[in-house]
Design brief:
By secondary structure, this protein is an all-alpha fold. Helices cover 65% and strands 0% of the residues. The chain has one domain. One of its GO terms (molecular function) is coenzyme A diphosphatase activity.
Length: 211
């Protein structure tokens, strides 16, 4: 056999095998790429919808009214709450021991949940429009930013569910209402008071300032 022919055949064989491997790899990754595109499109659609809802003027200005109505009328749901629900079992919660309260008791659970919900909605109302109305030079926000936004919305939903279960299964009037009122006053003092002051008062500014 001619040495030149033998060398040329040996040189072509690796090239052909690499091309076949490359095509096989593309065929194997094609379903994965399609699935990623579908998930990315679903993530973009869901986050855009949630951003429009939470970034609306109605949600930002009137969410505290809905939360106040929930705190006021949530205990009414106790008559429909099931006694056999997992939320109705007091052993699933931590209670204070060897402590005696005097005077009006303030529900710290309702206070923290109301304050956290109000703070998170205030931040999401600025975070949301930044996702929907991205600047042309910056491009569309990536999946990590959208996932963070979606996790924040999920956290808000969990807090709202915990508040509803607490009011429905363990109604305590007026301690829960006092806790909700103090949570509202704390949110009002931050976003309507301190955050609107000048930097000389060590104010961090309102959410979205400078964007």
């Amino acid at each position: 056999m001619d040495p030149k022919t033998e060398n040329s055949s040996k040189g072509l064989t690796p090239g052909v095998s690499l091309e076949k491997l490359h095509k096989m790899a593309e065929e194997l990754t094609l379903p994965g790429r399609f699935l990623l595109r579908v998930l990315d499109a679903a993530l973009e659609s869901v986050t855009n919808l949630l951003a429009v809802v939470l970034g609306s003027h109605l949600a930002r200005r009137h969410f505290h009214l809905m939360l106040s109505a929930l705190v006021l009328f949530g205990p009414v749901l106790s008559s429909w709450a099931s006694k056999y629900s997992i939320f109705a079992n007091s052993h699933n919660y931590l209670y204070r021991a060897n402590m005696v309260w005097r005077g009006y008791e303030v529900s710290q659970d309702v206070l923290i949940l109301c304050l956290c919900c109000l703070l998170l909605v205030e931040e999401l109302s600025v975070f949301g429009p930044h996702i929907v109305q991205a600047r042309p030079l910056q491009g569309s926000p990536g999946a990590p930013l959208r996932l963070v936004f979606l996790l924040c919305v999920a956290l808000l939903s969990v807090w709202m569910l915990l508040l509803l279960c607490l009011l429905a299964h363990f109604p305590k009037f007026p301690s829960q209402q006092l806790g909700g009122a103090l949570g509202y006053l704390g949110w009002k003092g931050l976003y309507q008071g301190w955050y609107r002051l000048t930097p000389s008062w060590c104010s961090p500014g309102l959410p979205g300032d400078g964007l």
